[in-house]
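Internal ticket #5521
Category: modeling
Description: The requester needs a full-assembly model to guide mutagenesis choices. All entity lines are attached below as received. Residue total reported by intake: 818.
Assigned to: D.W.
Attached entities:
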Amino acid sequence: MADRSRGGLVGSIGWIATIGLVLIGSGAIALVVGEFAAALSVPEVFLSLVGAFAAIQGLRYVSAARRADRVRTSFGDPERRKTVPAPGAQIDEETASALRGDRGAASHRRRLRERFRELAVAALAARTDRDEAAALDAIESGRWPDDPAAAAFLSNRRFPIAIRARSFFRRQSVHALGIERSIEAIEAVWDDTPRESDRETSSSRLRSQTQPSQEDTRE
Amino acid sequence: MRAFDTNRWTGLNGVILLVVGIGIALRVPSLVLVGVIGIGYAAFTTFGDAPEPALEIDRTVSVDAPDPGEEMLVSLTVRNAGETWLSDLRIVDGVPPGLEATDQPARMAAALAPGEEATMQYAVTAARGEHTWEHVRVVARNLSGSRERYIERSVETTVRCVPTFEAGSDLPLRGLTTQYSGRVVTDVGGSGVEFHSTREYRAGDPVKRIDWNRRARTGELSTLELREERAATVVLLVDSRVSAYVAQDPGERNAVERSVDAAGQLFTALVGSGDRVGIAAMSPSDCWIAPGAGTAHGVRLREQLGSHPAFASTPSDGKFYWPLWFNRIRRRLPRDAQVVFLTPISDQTAARTARRLDAHGHLVTIVSPNETGDTSIGSRFARVDRAIELMRLRRAGIRVIDWGDEPLRVAIAAAERRWSR
Amino acid sequence: MVTVSEARAADEQPSGEIDRTPTPRSAIGAVAFAAIASAMLALASIDGAVLAFAGTIVLAVGVWLARLRIVSAGSLLLVGGIVAAGVTGATAEPLLVAAVCVVLAWDLAETAIELGDRIGRDASTARFEAVHAATSLAVGVGSAAVGYGLYVATAGGQSTTAVVLLLFGAVIVISAFR
């Protein structure tokens, strides 16, 4: 049982514990043999000092314990069915990172802008008479969409001062506003353009009855 | 696993020192006495390590082969097979990822003397597929809870839940299969339903097809030739890559579950109408059943749809390499096979697959469960993105059934109305 | 088609969310022991009882909210009550009982919160909690007996030094073993 490098009592339990045992031993002897206690008895002042020191140490331990973390095994949640993400969860994550305001946020914003531009180009090409190049040009130059916040986000230009001021007072990031308005603009182009075809693809989740579409009639 | 400190009693020593210190400094013997109690507990916390429990664990499930939606009662019995007291056990059963405990959590806390046992019961609702229980997770602590140890014990239990896949008799299939090489009525005489011609009787012709009227009139034996009907060859292809596992509401069924359900209904209806049906999965785990007909084949398809890992309600592990997969499916597909592709179109790969199958001369019909919504920016993005992709596919001549919340029958009927115009 | 809609409806029912609030038995036990501690101190010292009563309320709130930090703060207030009672000259016996009750109150409160969080309020934990509380009580009673024995033995008063030596030795030994 003993630690071979040291041997004996000290080796097996360590110096501190040995001192503690010596203290206990002398205390026990002092309890029984009055003369021993008298020999050991210390001045009152010294006793007060020891007590105060112990109390202060105790206070330090307690406050340290407040910061100590509890350690335990986590069981996880096996009772729940494994959940799957919603469509677009990746975009949501990217949006959250882009709005976090730390050092990586700018690159997340750039990636998000790319994705939004692609979608906007596709929607514009499908719903307006612009081709893809013209659509991209309109977006990059800030001519589309009309909403200034969305246009600033999609074209990567400075947000107008009015929008900055409003965001400041609403304690909302201008980028959050830009992203929100961008998706609104894209949805507006896709959903509200008065063209019958493909209407059902965009909102059949909400409406069970579908409408005929031009694309399919030729089959 | 090794035992570790939980820090449960951290701070107790500090409180003891504080109280005893005040007691000594102010000469209050009763406070020093209170310190003795603290020391008693402090000694208690150092007493004993977290035991390594010797457990015998048994799991029983009330039904081995439940129907979907059926409630199963699971009971887990844990017996202390060792010599030591297990005063602090926390046990959590590893419910399969595809199942959910419905009323009670699958957990218990137990204190077991040697030889003693404790049982917990919980209910799970069966869902389609093969479900294997994971490790039982056990935490054992010493008496005071100052030390903890985590162990896992595996107890093999598997249940299979194969649904019946009832097809509504009103599932409109014409739209799905008759466009090109479908169930075509041919000009070839043979067996069938409709009259084509008569010919001289040859030995071996089925008695049923002898023209008895003519025999009665003229005494000659002749055989009826009926117009031959050719069955369609259809392969139901389910997209079950990780990216296809999406659900608008995490509590609801996901796109793959809906796809597999739809495949089940379609194959029942197709087999019922005499088509040759096969199934395949676009998935990390390989699944292919060549088109065939007959009752035995139908049973096999049903089994595979019900329990093959590629059709599980949660994603299967493993990497998916599209080019390898596509080459394999292309070699496997019979030349005249039509493909019904069940996919949420959650990414470009799904659309590309449809286009490439189409380019290889297969008639592709996409049945796409729509799980997109308008709850978050991401889901709004995904909704428009998917809608644009569907539009492009339609423009490329691929038929798309956009399947929202309505029953599949309604979605197919709506699509068919558009196609037949 | 009917099967599909039925399956959907079944899935929409509330699922087995674990109720992670503290387990009731240990929680009630914890508050009860804290209250006993306060009552004991009320027998000995008004100052101590006031502090301890405040501690009891804080501890009860902590258990209710399942917040361990609040429970610990309440327990410290209870300890403060004991100290105050001792300093204002309370006799040893009620302090001894109160001290055991305070440790038990903290222990049970922690158990209630931890069990609720990890195992859930609805799981079967009754026997476990009983064993746990009984063990803690036994340790407390045992320590109190030993302490009281020491107290009576040294009642002569001349051997304070001996008791101090014993206590410090014990604290050091226990710290070394942790």
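Resolution: model delivered.
Comment from assignee: Chain B has four domains: 4-45, 55-161, 174-180+231-419, 185-229.
Ticket closed.
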